[in-house]
Amino acid sequence: MAHGVAYNLNHSETSELLQELEKVNNNLKTLLQQLNRWQETGTLDTLIKLGVVIQAAKDSLTPGVISSVLSQVVNTVSLLDRIQSLGGDQLIASTIQALEEAIQENKNQPPKSLWSLLRLLNQDPQVKRSLGIFVSFLQKFSAHLNFAQVKE
């Protein structure tokens, strides 16, 4: 029987198997060292938490949720295209620029009285026109908010 064990240890297939086991052992040592580093730095905990979040997201992605999200994405892209085609990017940039200029212009000024504002409105055609546009916008905006009104 001892002769059989010695023969099996010297057999080429057994030698190849031992070499493979040595490689696997080295790979496992490297893997354990990496896992220990990840555990020490908190990376392993972070990866586990990320896995939990991904699983929760995967579990919640029903066909209805996917359809709803895709519909909202399509509507948003369509709205952005509409804004772009109407020159909305220039409108937004101009609005921001005007707001920044107005803030700087009034930074260290006392608040204007109602009478001085009315005088300015009466004297400055640009202010009169802008206020007219703003009031018209508020009237139209109110009409378009019917989806937000509480139904009785």
Automatic annotation (TrEMBL):
A Pfam family hit: DUF1641
Coiled coil location: 11-41
Keywords noted in UniProt: Coiled coil
InterPro entries associated with the record: DUF1641
The keyword Coiled coil is assigned to this record: yes
Protein name, entry field: Uncharacterized conserved protein YjgD, DUF1641 family
Organism classification: Bacteria, Bacillati, Bacillota, Clostridia, Neomoorellales
